[in-house]
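FAQ

Q: What does a record look like?
A: Structure on top, sequence underneath. For example:
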């Protein structure tokens, strides 16, 4: 009996300590979730502001748009895009070897930071209203293509006869991007949060480059 008391007390203290640590872990988890939600909301608001600002811009030509966004030029032959071993999208720099063949630059492979999508003003407004990017499939070859983007601003998807917009979209693996080897476009069937839009430029495809 003389030993039962101290042992019982030690067990209770251990249980209390465990419960306290478990509650602390839950509190920290809740704080992290709240911070993530706040961050997502802030990114979404910034995305909305970028869309609104772009609508009031004067349209620019392709070369100016690429420069403003810090984007690679269309059909850039110095970089290629590939699917990584875990499904992520990578970019690799290329160069000519002494035989004149195009080869990968050793050690240059890294995650692709951005993809680009051309949209009409109607689609831009729809993104603002919905809070996410999702293709209306108007120019898709098949309905299952999803939202189509590329590693550079592609004028092919700009609307005809009127200004359109280039979206610079931050690549996040959570958005399910995949590379189509047949056409080199980067696509997803998921809804991409508006907060992923890093920049928007109004462009007129009919302007001289």
């Amino acid at each position: 009996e003389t030993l039962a008391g101290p042992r019982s007390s030690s067990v209770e203290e251990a249980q209390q300590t465990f419960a306290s640590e478990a509650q602390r872990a839950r509190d920290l988890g809740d704080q992290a979730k709240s911070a993530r939600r706040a961050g997502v909301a802030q990114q979404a608001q910034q995305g909305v502001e970028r869309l609104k600002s772009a609508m009031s811009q004067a349209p620019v030509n392709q070369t100016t748009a690429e420069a403003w966004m810090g984007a690679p030029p269309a059909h850039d032959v110095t970089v290629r895009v590939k699917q990584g071993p875990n499904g992520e999208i990578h970019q690799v720099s290329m160069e000519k070897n002494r035989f004149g063949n195009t080869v990968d630059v050793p050690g240059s492979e890294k995650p692709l930071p951005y993809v680009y999508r051309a949209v009409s003003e109607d689609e831009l407004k729809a993104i603002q209203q919905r809070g996410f990017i999702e293709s209306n499939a108007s120019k898709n070859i098949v309905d299952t293509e999803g939202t189509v983007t590329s590693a550079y601003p592609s004028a092919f998807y700009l609307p005809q006869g009127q200004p359109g917009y280039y979206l610079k979209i931050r690549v996040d693996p959570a958005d399910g991007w995949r590379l189509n080897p047949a056409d080199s476009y980067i696509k997803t069937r998921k809804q991409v949060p508006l907060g992923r839009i890093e920049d928007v430029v109004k462009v007129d495809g009919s302007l001289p480059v």
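Q: Is there anything notable about this one?
A: DSSP finds three helices and twelve strands in the chain.
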